[in-house]
Amino acid sequence: MGKISEIIVIKNGIIVTMDKELNWFRDGAVVVQNNKILDVDKTRKILKKYKGDIIIDAKNKAVMPGLINTHMHSGLLRGTGDDLPLYEWLSKYVHPAHKVLKPAEVYAASMLSYSEAIKCGTTCVLDMHRFMDRSADAAGKLGIRAVLAPYVSDQLDYLENFEDNKRLMREKHRSFEDRIHVWCGLHSFRDCSPELLIEAREYARKYKVGLHTHSNESIDDVELAKKMYGKRPLEHLFDYGIVGPNVVLAHCVWLSNTEIEIIRKTNTRVAHCPVANMKLADGIAAIPKLLKKQIKVGLGSDGTVESNSFDLFQVMKFATLLGRVHELGTNAMSADVTLKMATVNGAEVLGLNNEVGSIEVGKKADIILVNLRRLHLTPILYGDYFNVISHLVYATKGSDVDTVIVDGKIVMENRIIKRVDENKVIEKAQENAIELLRRIST
Ligand SMILES: [Zn+2]
C-alpha cells in the first residue's frame, strides 16, 4: 500500500477559475491532491468534506491559474545596450554572448530567469536558449513547468545544431515528473535552411512534439525573406510546413492578410510579446484582428535583453493597452480577454490546455495566490461592480503574488521560493554575468 498523499486546502479565497464561462466566486476553496485539483467549491462546503494536511488561508487573495509565458529566453545580460540601435546591440552583445556562452552560465541564467518568473506568478514557460539540458535541470530544481525549444540553426555555427536538439529530446523530454517538455526549436528562417525546416518538421511530426520559431517580427524580417526567397516570412514557412496546431510563432507583428489566413487555416499558434515589440521598435501586432478570427494567441515576455522583465502582469497590461492603440478603440481588448491569453489560451498555445490553464477539477494544480490587500488594488468590489479581473490586468504587479503551486507542489510560499536560496541564485547570476561580459569584451 502506498502512502496516502497529502491534501492541500486553499480556503477563503476569491476564486478566478478561467473556465469557459469565466466563473468566479468569493469565499471559495480549492483542494489539491497529488498533482491535481480534486475539488473547487465554497469554503464552508469544502471544509465539511476535507480536513486537509496543509491549509492555506487565501483571505483577500485571488486564487487563479498560474500565468503561462509562451515566449521567453533565459538570460544574464539584462540592462546591456538597452538604448542602442537594434543591429548595433545585436552585434555588440547578443551574438557575441551566444558565441562564448558556457553550459554553467545557462544554468545560472535559467535559475535566475525561472526564479523571477515564479516570483511573478508564472507557472509555465516556453524558453529558447542554448545548452538547454541545463535549463531543464534549473526548471527541475525550482519546480516550474517548462517547454524547452533550443536555438537551432544550420547557418550560424555558434547556435545549436539539430543533433543537439535531438539529444536534448532524448535526455530531457518528459523529465522531472513530466514537467519538462522538449520541442524542436528553430532560431529564425533567416538562419535555418529549407532542409533544416523539413528535418525539424518531420521530427516534430514523428515524435508528436511542438515547434517554435520567431517570425515576422520586424519590417526588416519581411524585406529579408522577400530578398532571400521572394516571399514573405510566413509564406516561406508555410511552403516548408512550419505551420499547424503544434507550431508557436513568436511576434507576428507584420502580417499580410494572406499570412493571417495561413495562420487561421492551419491553426498555427502565436506568442505575442508587446513589451519587446515596443522596446525594439518593431511595431504593433494586430492582435485584436487575430483574436476576431479565433486565432490562438498567448503572451510572451521575450528575453530580459528584449523586455527587461519576466513579469507577465506587466505584459498583460501592455498587451491590452497596445491592442487598443492599434484599433483606436477601448473595445479592441478587454481585461478578461487578456487574462485568458495569459492563462487558458496560453495553455492551448502550448498544447497543454487539457492539463493546465484553469482551475477546474481534474486539471493539474498550477495555481497562484495574489494578495489584493494592497493600496494599489483597493477597493475590491463584488456583484455588479466585480473588479478583480480588472485589478489583475491593469493594476497588479508580479510582486503581489504571494504563493505559487506547480504540479500540486508549493514552490513559493509567502514570497519565499522553497527549493533554492534566492540570494544564492542572485549571487551566481551576478558572478556569471560579469564573467560572460568579460569574455565578450576580450
Ligand atoms: Zn525571442
Structural overview:
This protein is of the alpha/beta class. It has 2 domains: 7-65 and 359-416, Urease, subunit C, domain 1, CATH 2.30.40; 67-349, TIM Barrel (Alpha-Beta Barrel). It is 41% helix and 21% strand. The chain has 18 helices and 18 strands. The chain has helices spanning 43-49, 86-100, 103-119, 132-142, 162-172, 175-178, 194-207, 219-229, 233-239, 257-266, 274-279, 287-292, 304-307, 312-327, 335-342, 344-349, 388-394, 422-441, and strands at 7-16, 24-33, 36-42, 54-57, 61-65, 67-72, 122-127, 145-148, 180-182, 184-188, 211-215, 247-251, 269-272, 297-299, 367-371, 401-406, 409-413, 416-417. The strands form 3 sheets. Strands 1, 2, 3, 4, 5, 15, 16, 17 and 18 form a 9-stranded mixed sheet that branches. Strand 2 (24-33) and strand 3 form a beta hairpin. Helix 2 packs across helix 18 and helix 14 crosses helix 15 (335-342). The protein binds zinc ion. Zinc ion (ZN) binds at residues 71, 73, 214, 250, 302.
